[in-house]
Amino acid sequence: MYIELKNINKTFGDFKASDNVSFGIEKGRLIGLLGPSGSGKTTILRMLAGLEKQDSGDILIDGKNVNDLPPSERGIGFVFQSYALFPFMTVYDNIAYGLKVQKKDKAFIKARVAELLELVGLPDVGKRYPSQLSGGQRQRIALARALAPSPELLLLDEPFAAIDAKVRKELRTWLRETIDKIGITSIFVTHDQDEAIEVADEIVITNKGRVEQVGNPVEIYSEPKTPFVAQFIGQSAMIEDYGRLKGFEQSGEGNTAIIRPEFIEINKFEDGGYHQFESSMEDAVVEDVFFRGSAFEVRADINGISITGRYPLSSPRLKKGDKIKILIKKLYTISGNSTEILVNKALDDSELYYI
Amino acid sequence: MEQNSGKKSSAGQKILKCGVISWIVIIAVWALGAMSIKDEYFLPSPKQTLISIKLLIENGTLWADIAASAGRVIKGWLLAIVFAVPLGLMVGNFRVVRWLVEPILSFFRFVPAIALTTLFLMWFGVGEESKVALIFYASFFPMFVNTIAGVASTDKQLVEAASCMGAKKARVFFTVVVPSAVSNIYTGIRLGLSSAIICVIAAEMLVGSDGLGYLINSSKLYYKTSWAFAGIVTLAVIGFAADRLLQFIGRKKLSHFGVK
Question: Which end of chain A is flanked by fewer CB atoms within 10 Å, N or C?
Answer without folding.
Answer: C
